[in-house]
Write a structure and sequence with these properties.
Blueprint (H helix, E strand, L loop, with lengths): L3 H8 L5 H12 L5 H8 L3 H13 L19 E9 L4 H7 L6 E6 L6 E7 L2 H12 L5 E9 L16
Antiparallel strand pairs: 1-3, 1-4, 2-3
Helix pairs in contact: 3-4
Length: 165
């Protein structure tokens, strides 16, 4: 018999509306205390604590982090880089770019391309260096196409509501 994490890995645990409200509230302010969260959501502290513990154990909540505005942090240049890889080289690509700070997101995708990367840098010159010298020079990369991002909006997994239910 598996534990909650095994269940989450196989296909996700069943989340009810209270779980989703907890996730939304934590997405809005992960620093709030369990007591404050419970009060906001009209739950007992014990119920809120148990649910948060269950969400952590199942791997739904994997940690708490600061949300950084890349522009405010000086990373005002961004692009999506679409890659075609040589046969079965996804793991090679992921390993090669694991320590590249400019690569903010890397995904294996279906369709015309094999992978898509979100690259953020301070300048266009730095973006050019990362794309041409770092990414395209990898033996596993067959071809690439770069799309400069002029403006963007981040949509989180649990959109931040104007007010909690």
């Amino acid at each position: 018999m598996g534990d909650a994490r095994d269940e989450a890995v196989r296909g996700g645990i069943s989340l009810d509306s209270v779980d989703h409200r907890i996730l939304r509230a934590l997405s809005q302010d992960a620093r709030q205390s369990v007591s404050a969260l419970a009060a906001t959501l009209h739950l007992s502290r014990a119920n809120a604590y148990d649910r948060i513990s269950r969400l952590r154990a199942a791997g739904v909540l994997q940690g708490y982090t600061a949300v950084v505005d890349p522009r405010a942090a000086g990373m005002s240049t961004a692009a999506y880089v679409f890659l075609t890889l040589k046969q079965d080289d996804w793991e090679v690509l992921r390993g090669a770019l694991a320590d590249e700070p400019a690569v903010r997101h890397l995904a294996l995708v279906g369709g015309q391309y094999d992978a898509v990367l979100l690259v953020r840098t301070r300048t266009v010159e730095e973006l050019r260096r990362v794309v041409f010298e770092r990414i395209q020079s990898l033996a596993c990369v067959q071809s690439s196409q770069t799309a400069l991002i002029f403006d963007d909006h981040t949509q989180y997994e649990h959109p931040m509501p104007r007010r909690l239910p």
